[in-house]
Every structure is written in structure tokens, then in C-alpha cells.
Design brief:
Number of strands of chain B: 4
Oligomer: heterodimer
Shape of chain B: elongated
Order of helices and strands of chain B: HHEHHHHHHHEHEHHHHHEHHHHHH
Number of helices of chain A: 4
Shape of chain A: elongated
Structural class of chain B: mainly alpha
Strand content of chain B: under 5%
Largest interface: A-B, 57 and 71 residues
Radius of gyration of chain A: 32 Å
Strand content of chain A: 25-35%
Chain lengths: 186, 495
Amino acid sequence: MSGTDQKSDCGCKKLAPTEDPSASGISRRNLLLKVGAGLNGIAAALIGVPVLGYVLSSFTKGSRNSWISLGSLDRFPEGETRLAVYRNPITKPWDGDTAEVPCWVRRIDSEKFQVFAINCTHLGCPVRWFQESRLFMCPCHGGAFYEDGSHASGPPPRGLFEYQHKIDSGELKVLGGHLPTLAEPL
Amino acid sequence: MLRSIALWLEERLHLTKLFESTAGHKVPPSTNSWFYVFGSGTLLCFVLQIVTGTCLAFVYVPSTSQAWTSLQYLNNEQFLGWFLRAVHNWGSIFMVAIMSLHLVQTFLFGAYKYPRELTWVSGCVLFLCTLGMAFTGQILRFDQDAYWGLGIGASIMGRVPFMGARLVHLMLAGSTIASETLSRFFSLHVFVVPGMIIALLSLHLRLVLTKGINEYPKPGSVVRKESYATEYEAMVEKTGVPFVPNVIGKDLIFSGFLIVAIVICAFVFGPQGPSGPPNPTLIHTAPKPDFYFLPIYAILALLPAYMETFLLLVAPVFALAILILLPFYSGTGEKSYRRRPIAVLVVLLAVLTAGLLAYLGTFAPWSPHMEAWSGAATPAAYVKGRSALELQGAILIQGKQCRNCHSLGGEGGMRGPALDTVATRLTRDQLIRQVIQGSGNMPAYGKNLRPAEVTALVAFMQTLRPSYQPEARDSTQAVNSTSADAQKSDVLVNR
């Protein structure tokens, strides 16, 4: 190898760091190391940025809510609270049952409704409606809510999450599309 | 022939050198102790989890529409699928348990002190990774508990200030619990976290080799940065014995028993779940985490609301910092637990707290018993000889679902106090006020009960006291001497 180096006229023998570092402090080997490291840095960014973007896409993307029908108004008798189910506005073919979302519909009178998320505001467990005591009770940590969704007892920090709703051509519609949490209520 | 093969391999792989620097490295003879078997036991559990987990992944389908069915298939159709699921489940339980013992042992034996700080730090992170495996594994058993467990996780994330909503989206891989959520947890459980564990484990074992295993601490022999390393090296040089074959015997025996125990548990108790299908519209469910997370589940019911978010988000960070940084503020000095009473107390306190919370978590006294109002009978003694009004009250106690939170005769919820002796604690007026306005943890029933119903309910509750105990009386009335005397004599008569 060294013989080849000596024969070449690129001056590499002179630039070898052990023998004669150049005035600027950049030897050939040093330069190659730096260029190599820089090139790999670029390569890492070329892979790393798309990978991070891919993985974190759900972090940056917001919810896309849309109006969903809960069915005709006749399904909800006045003065009662009934379970209704809708299908997530955005689903994938392999979502299975998880695309179905339950909610509680309270019909106060002919035109007045309240639609509550099933999720307890404490930690998201499914609350159940008890007609006789007119309470929603949570099975996880004993939270309870009055029929209007306000907090009755237990650890929940607030009343039930309430959907925006509207009556459109004889159907009750709610604005949904994400799991309600304290950070992002409905 | 064999000899020539061995020599051929030796020449290429330098096996003797490898053996001398790893399995055959010299250790202090004092480490030949039953207290030093938990690390290898945890490692064995991990290997077992990899083997069984890989086999389960041959069949399991990480899709929200098929996962539950594929688990049923594993349980009922796949040859020995139930057994591998059971071994994987029991392997995880034993892994967390043995790892906890390893943590406690190294803490009590001062193994985290100079110069083994990084061994401790990597071990703590390994412990967290293992808990991460436990949580993600629980999600892969995609049933009702898993579905609502994700909801609980998302609700906790949602409490983070400023970026809560985004973190929820990151965790769920979208805005709802759906197919991508399960895929995400599958990837974490099968690729990401095991990869981290293997990397950290390599570091952990490498450190055990470079810095040597902690000698069995003698009370009074303190660690000093200036002298410890040389003393340790001299001691190993002088008295050290090779780990293999001199010390590994106890590890082998423990590991053998460990595997047998896991297999017996798997055979006797079988696989865990899946419980009901992960259909969110089946709301008649009471989600509960696996036992590792029961203390957290319990504490979330018992904390006052105002400190909940703090304890969920800030306290774990502090607790972890105290644990992980332990060698940096307590890196020298006494190692033996016999001279470290606070360390022993900390362990006892932690074990008692976690144990008590887990115990409470198993039967969740804070949760209403959803079926008690229609399912639990009123004790016959409580209705015998009662007036029509009182009987009406007894019916209302059932019908208005009071028993979901209040027990009678030991049956019913434990959210509120048992009503068996309520008349000895509250007067008629107090009962009426409590029912109508509620207070503490009790909702107000004023809007749901007609006055006549309240009268009947309270009339019944006033009969609920043992014959030998007087009714609660209004102490504000005692200022009137005649009525006070009269009441006093009343009490005496009742006695």
C-alpha cells in the first residue's frame, strides 16, 4: 500500500497525519473522517426525520369531528335517558367493534336534549344510567353524576362530557369523532 | 474427533478467553448466597417470556377486529395454545415479582453504592421497562378490561397540562381507541420495549462484569471512594472463586424451582382471559387492571380530587428520581441493612402500602355494587313487625338503588356506610336532611323523592338499630332540664 501511496502524485504521503500535518490542521484522514461523519449525519437525518414524522404524526394531527346521526327522534322517549350507539366517522375496515361508540341521550322535552359521552370524567370508564335513582354511576372508582350530567359524588373532577347536538330533518345528530378527555372534552 | 472440533472452535472463537472473562470470572465467595439468585431468576423469566411470546405471536392477530377471536382460538383450538398463554401470563407475574425481590435485595445490600451506580440506574430503567411490558401485554389481551384500560391510560394522559390532548393522540395513535391503537401497543410490546430491555440488560450484565458483583455486606465495613475499588480487587484476587462452577449452583436450583412453579401455576390456573369482547357498547363491565397496577387503581379512588392530578403526574416523576438517583446522594458509607434502619423501614413501608392498596383494589369497596338494588335480599329481621309505612321505606331502599352504595346485613355496596345501625348515628331530622341534600360522597336525592317517599324511607331507617342501643338523639334539646331528664330515663329504660 505504502508503495502505491509513494508512487501516486496526489501528495497523500505528505498529508498523512503521522508524518506531516498540513498547516491548516486538516489531514487527508481527518478530512475523510469529517466528511464521512457529516455524510452519515445527513443520512441519519434523511431516515430519522421521516421516521419521527411517521411515528409522531398522531401527536401533531388534531381530531376531525363531524356530525353523526343517532337516529330518529322517536327512539328517545321524553323524560327518559337511553343508550345510543353511533359509528365513528373515520374508521378502518379492521376496526371491528371498537368503531362503535355508545353515548347516553337524555330527552328533556320534545325539542330539548342532552347527549353525554359514556366515559366517566375521572378516568374514562363507562358510566351506567340508573333510572330509579336518576344517577349515572361509574363502576371503576365510584363516581356518580346527576341526570343532567353534573357531578354528584366521588372523584370525578367535573360533570359528564356533553356532545354538541342538533336536530336535523327529524334526526338527532351529535358532533363526535374523538375520545373525550379532560384535555379535549367534546 | 470431538477434541479436534473443540480445538478448531477454540482457535476461531477464543472460547476459553470468553469463558474466563464472563461466566468463569472471579467473584467474592460471600456472594455464594441464596440472596443472590434473584437477578438470574429475572433473566430466566425474561428468556421464558421471549420464547413463549414469540410462539404466541405465530398465532395472535394484532387487529381490533380479530385479536379477541385469535385469543379464543389460542385458548381452545391451537394445540397447547392455552398452556403457552398461561406460561406467558404466569411468567410475567413471576418476572415482576422476582424482579421486585431483586430490587429490594440490591437496595438492602447497598449494591447501588460506589462504583455500581450505573448498574443500579440501568436496573431501575429495566424495572420500568418490565412494568411497561406488563401494561402493554395487558392491552394485547384485547378484551373489555384492555379496551377500558386504554381509556384510563388516555384519561391520565389527558391531565397533562398544555399538551394533554396531543399525548392522548400519540398514545392512541389517533383520536379514538381503534385498530391503530392496538397495532401501536403490539409494536411496543413485541419490538420496542423488548429491544430496549435487551440493550439495557447487556449494559447491566456488562457492568456486573466490569465493576464486579457486590460482596455480601458486613456491618461496619463502609464504602469509601478512595479505597473501595482497590480493596475489592485485592479481595477478589485473593479469595475470589469462579462464578461457574463454584457459585452458579444456587442460581440453577432457584431457576429450576422457578420454572417448575411457573409451569405448575400455568397448569393449575390456566391462561388469564380474555374476558368479555372489546365492544365498547357492552357497558355492563367493571374494568380492572392486572395485579401489578392494582395499587395505582386503588389510590385513584382514595385520593382527594384536588391532589389527584398532582399525584398522577408529578409524584411518579419525583418517586422515580429519588429511586434512580439513589446512588448519587447515598453512594458511599454503610452497606449492610443491619446498620441502615431507615432503608429497612422504607422497604417495609413501600411493601405494606403497595400490598394494602392492591388488597383494596381486589374488591374495590369504593365502587357501587351495580346489581345490589335488585339482587340483594332485605334481611328478614329488618322487616319483621314493621309498620306499613316502614315497609314502604324498605321497598324504597331497594327500589331507589340505595343499596348499590349502602349495605344491609353485609350485602350491598360499601361506598357509603352500612345502614344496619344507622338509627343509632343519625336522628330523624338528620336522616331527612342527608337523603334530600346529600353530603360528603352521597348525591342529593331531593329531586328524585316525593315527600311521602322520604317520610317512608326515613321511618324505615329509624328502625335500623339493635334493641340494646338507643336511638341517636338531638343533643341541642338537652338544654331543657326536664326533657333532658326524660331522655336520660328513656335511655336507661332502653338499656
